Amino acid sequence: MTDISSQSFADVSFLTSVFDVKQLPAPELPEIAFAGRSNVGKSSLLNRLIKRKNLVKTSGKPGKTQSLNFFLLDNSIYLVDLPGYGYARVSKKMQASWQDLITEYLEIRENLKCVVVIVDLRHEPKIGDMQLVDWLRSNGVPFLLVYTKADKLSGNQRSKNAAILDAGFGVAKSDRLLFSAKTGMGRDNLLQALDSFLV
Questions:
Q1: pLDDT tens per residue across span 150-197
Q2: pLDDT on residue 88
Q3: pLDDT tens for residues 64-93?
Q4: Which CATH number is correct for 12-197, 3.50.50.60, 3.20.20.70, 3.40.190.10, 3.40.50.300?
């Protein structure tokens, strides 16, 4: 059994960018994938999670991540940064190719333990987010919803917005968590939640 919360995070390295499933590394280690709309803060969340400032490149430009980016954590877990979906200013053809790549990866990857679906707490559920969650559910792929940018709202507003998102996604409060890449809020909870998928 691998516990992500017990990792030292001393040895985290970029492994490879995958543009075609034929390039996927051998499925020898458990994998956790991170998905979300373009510009939702995936890279910032990952950097906060692994205690790095900028190992995962952040960008103000939507659509920056155009491949499946693999990071190796303490030689025991792969963290996979998936291309963002939504309003990225790229051609429809390119967006479709990312979609195909993501879908094929999610369908065939036997060592994928969980998909962390990152959603902006400030907004109501978006169609793309709901479609992804519905697809993961219907295909039996384990997932965890993380409502990020929690630092941008007051406590009351956080609870109110989280309840709206819970209803939209059809999840219980215990099936998601609040997170802030800026303050680190929710980091320990996220690590503990991921442990439950790595059993």
A1: 999 999 999 999 999 999 999 999 999 999 999 999 999 999 999 999
A2: 54
A3: 557 899 999 989 999 999 988 865 565 677
A4: 3.40.50.300
State how far the alpha carbon of 118 is from the alpha carbons of 13, 41, 74, 85, in Å: 22, 8, 24, 11
How do strand 77-81 and strand 68-73 relate by DSSP bridges?
A: antiparallel
Domain assignments of the chain as residue spans, ordered by start:
12-197
Structure tokens at 123: 């907004």
**Starting from the edge strand earliest in sequence, which strands make up the sheet with 176-178, in order?**
12-18, 68-73, 77-81, 31-36, 112-120, 143-148, 176-178
Amino acid symbol at 169? F
Number of residues written out for the chain: 199
Q: What is the pTM of this model?
A: 0.91
CB 108 within 8 A of CB 76: no
